[in-house]
Automatic annotation (TrEMBL), chain A:
This is F-box domain-containing protein. InterPro entries: At3g26010-like, F-box-assoc_dom_typ1, F-box-like_dom_sf, F-box_dom. Residues 5-45 form the F-box domain. Transmembrane segments: none annotated. SMART domains: FBOX (SM00256).
Automatic annotation (TrEMBL), chain B:
It comes from the Eukaryota. Belongs to the SKP1 family. It comes from Rehmannia glutinosa (Chinese foxglove). The keyword Hydrolase does not apply. Residues 15-73 form the SKP1 component POZ domain. This is SKP1-like protein. Involved in ubiquitination and subsequent proteasomal degradation of target proteins. Together with CUL1, RBX1 and a F-box protein, it forms a SCF E3 ubiquitin ligase complex. The functional specificity of this complex depends on the type of F-box protein. In the SCF complex, it serves as an adapter that links the F-box protein to CUL1.
Length: 380, 167
C-alpha cells in the first residue's frame, strides 16, 4: 500500500502545494501529471487557496516583454540574482499580446491583422486555460481604443472588461483631429453580457486607453479614470514631477501595489520613487531590471540581459529599449468557475467582505495617494 | 454519573476498546477517542467486539494516532491547546514517519489529522527536486527523456533549480 497511487490521499497532500511546485511535480510521473492537470484538482486547489490567500500574500511574479514582437519572459527571483526564462502561452492561442492584467488574470488579444478587433481572451497564466470573449458590436462607436481588465479575487470571483470605443473619424474638422468621441462598455463575467456605461466623452487622440490599472473600483489611465461603481469618466489631479521635466525626458505610468496606486516617473539616468516603506520597486532600464528598495534607498540590479542573445538581436532598434513593458502581476490560480464553486467562494468571502469599506473612500483616497507619491518621489 | 442505557450491562464495557496493531501490540483506548476515527466508529456500531485488529498499521504509527485521538477526545483541553498540540505533533517528524501516518489516517478516516499531516508533508515537499519526490514516494519515472524535456520547456518559468533541495 503506497500513497503514490492513492489519488484521494495524494490530492489531500498536493492541494497544499503552491502553484510553482505543482507545475514541477507534473514531471514526477504520468499519473501525477494527469492528477495535477485535472479540472477536479485545479478547482479544489483554487477553493483551498482562495481561503488561505485572504490571510497571506501570494508570491509576486513578473512577466516581461522586450518589444511588440518578442516573446514573453518570466523573471525568476532568488538571492543570487534573477534569471529570465521564456514563458509559453497555451498553444491554442495564436500570437497572444497581453492587453491588460489584473491580480493574476490576463486579458489577451490574439493577432489577427486582417479583421478589426472582435474578440479577446481571458487567460490564466498558471493553468494556461483561456476563455474567448466576443466584443460587443456597436454600430456607432466602432473603433476599439482599449481593453482593460478589472479583477480582484478578494472582493469578487467575477471579472469585468472595460472597453473604450470611439466613433470613426468622419470629418476633417480641427476638433476631430485632436479629440475623439468615446464611449465605455463594460463586460461582466457574472452575467456574460456587455453594457454601455456612462456618458460619451471627448478624449484626445493620443491617450492610451490600453494598460489601464485597476484600483479602488476604477480603471486608471495616464491622466484619466473610469469609476466602475458610478460609471463616470474623470480626470486625475495633475501630477507635478520633481526635477527638470522640461529638459529631461521621463516615462510615467501607474502601478498598483498592495492597495496603493503609484505614479512612477522614470528618468532613464536617475532613480524614481514610490512612497511606501518596506517595499521594492522593480524597474526596467535599457537592458536590465533593477530592484529598488525604498527603505534602504538603494538600487540593486536583478538581471542584466544586455549580453543575452535575444537582446542583442534587437539592439540596433533603439526604440525597443523603451518598449519594454513590465507587467506586475500576482500569480493566482484562477479561472472561470462553476456556479457551485462560486457559491462556495462567496461563502468563504462573506466574512472578509464585511471588513472592506475601502471603496467608500473612493476618489479622496486617490487624491491623497497621488499627493503622497509625489512627496515620496523626492528620493535620490 | 453514568447515564442509564437500555442495553444495561454493555454500558460499562463500551467505555474502552482494545486496538491491536499489525505487529501485535495492543492499545487500550477510550471509546470517546476511538470514535473520532470514522472507521473505528463504524466497526464499533456494527459489532460488539471490543478488540479491533488493524492489519496495516504498525505499532509506532498506531501509538501516534492514538495519542492524537486521546488528546482530541479530552474535553478538558481548549481548542487553542489542541491546535498547538497539532503543531507540536507534526513538527520535526521525518517524511517517512509522516507517510505512514497519513496512510493510517486514511485507513482510520481521521480527517483532521489527515489534514495536519498532509499540510506538513506539502511543506517539506514544496522546494524539493522532482527526483527527491520520486525517491520518497517510490515512483518510477515513466517519461521518455524527450517527453520530460518538452514538459520542462513548456513550463520553464516554474523551474529554478538553484532554489531546489535534494535532501
Amino acid at each position: 500500500m503506497t500513497i503514490a497511487y492513492n489519488d484521494d490521499l495524494l490530492t489531500e497532500i498536493l492541494i497544499w502545494l503552491p502553484e510553482k511546485s505543482l507545475i514541477r511535480f507534473k514531471l514526477v510521473c504520468k499519473r501525477w501529471f494527469s492528477l495535477i492537470s485535472s479540472h477536479y484538482f485545479s478547482h479544489r486547489h483554487i477553493l483551498h487557496h482562495h481561503h488561505r490567500h485572504s490571510r497571506s500574500k501570494p508570491e509576486p511574479s513578473l512577466l516581461l516583454r522586450l518589444s511588440e514582437a518578442s516573446d514573453y519572459f518570466y523573471l525568476q527571483f532568488s538571492k543570487d540574482g534573477g534569471k529570465l526564462v521564456p514563458y509559453h502561452f497555451s498553444p491554442t492561442l495564436i500570437e497572444p499580446t497581453i492587453l491588460s492584467f489584473s491580480n493574476g488574470l490576463f486579458l489577451l488579444q490574439c493577432r489577427n491583422v486582417e479583421k478589426p478587433l472582435e474578440e479577446c481572451h481571458i487567460y490564466n497564466p498558471i493553468t494556461k486555460q483561456s476563455r474567448k470573449i466576443l466584443l460587443n458590436t456597436n454600430e456607432r462607436y466602432r473603433c476599439v481604443m482599449g481593453l482593460n481588465l478589472a479583477f480582484d479575487p478578494s472582493k469578487s470571483p467575477h471579472y469585468k472588461i472595460i472597453c473604450v470605443r470611439a466613433i470613426k473619424r468622419r470629418s476633417s474638422r480641427a476638433l476631430w483631429c485632436r479629440e475623439r468621441l468615446c464611449q465605455i462598455e463594460v463586460y461582466e463575467s457574472e452575467t456574460g453580457t456587455w453594457k454601455i456605461c456612462g456618458e460619451p466623452f471627448w478624449a484626445p487622440t493620443d491617450v492610451d486607453f490600453n494598460h489601464g490599472i485597476y484600483w479602488k473600483n476604477g480603471i486608471h489611465w495616464d491622466g484619466d479614470f473610469f469609476d466602475l461603481q458610478d460609471n463616470f469618466v474623470g480626470k486625475h489631479p495633475e501630477i507635478v514631477v520633481p526635477g527638470d521635466t522640461r529638459t529631461e525626458n521621463y516615462y510615467g505610468n501607474y502601478v498598483e501595489s498592495y492597495g496603493y496606486l503609484h505614479y512612477i516617473a522614470h528618468f532613464p539616468e536617475k532613480k524614481s520613487g514610490e512612497s511606501e516603506e518596506d517595499s521594492m520597486l522593480v524597474l526596467h532600464e535599457p537592458g536590465k531590471v533593477m530592484a529598488y528598495k525604498f527603505q534602504e534607498k538603494s538600487g540593486k540590479e536583478i538581471i542584466d540581459f544586455r549580453e543575452e542573445a535575444f537582446y542583442q538581436e534587437r539592439c540596433h532598434v533603439r526604440c525597443y529599449f523603451f518598449d519594454i513593458s513590465v507587467l506586475l502581476l500576482l500569480i493566482n490560480q484562477l479561472e472561470p468557475l462553476t456556479e457551485q464553486q462560486l457559491l462556495a467562494i462567496n461563502n468563504l468571502q462573506q466574512s472578509s467582505q464585511q471588513a472592506e469599506d475601502a471603496l467608500s473612500q473612493g476618489m479622496e483616497a486617490l487624491q491623497q495617494s497621488l499627493a503622497e507619491t509625489v512627496a515620496g518621489s523626492l528620493g535620490p | 454519573m453514568v447515564t442509564t442505557d437500555e442495553k444495561g450491562p454493555l454500558t460499562a464495557k463500551k467505555k474502552s476498546v482494545i486496538i491491536r496493531s499489525c505487529d501485535g501490540d495492543e492499545f487500550l483506548v477510550s471509546e470517546s477517542a476511538a470514535v473520532l476515527s470514522t472507521s473505528l466508529k463504524k466497526i464499533l456500531e456494527e459489532k460488539e467486539d471490543r478488540l479491533i485488529h488493524l492489519s496495516d498499521i504498525d505499532n509506532k504509527t498506531l501509538a501516534m494516532v492514538i495519542a492524537y485521538l486521546s488528546t482530541h477526545a479530552d474535553d478538558g483541553l481548549s481548542d487553542d491547546l489542541k491546535r498547538s498540540f497539532d503543531q507540536e505533533f507534526v513538527s520535526g517528524k521525518e517524511f517517512d514517519v509522516l507517510k505512514y501516518l497519513v496512510l493510517a489516517t486514511d485507513t482510520l478516516q481521521v480527517t483532521c489529522l489527515c489534514y495536519t499531516v498532509a499540510k506538513k508533508m506539502a511543506d517539506i515537499m514544496k522546494n524539493k527536486l522532482v527526483e527527491w519526490v520520486r525517491r520518497e514516494f517510490d515512483i518510477q519515472n515513466d517519461y521518455t527523456p524527450e517527453a520530460e524535456a518538452e514538459i520542462r520547456r513548456l513550463d520553464a518559468w516554474a523551474w529554478d533549480d538553484r532554489q531546489l533541495e535534494d535532501d
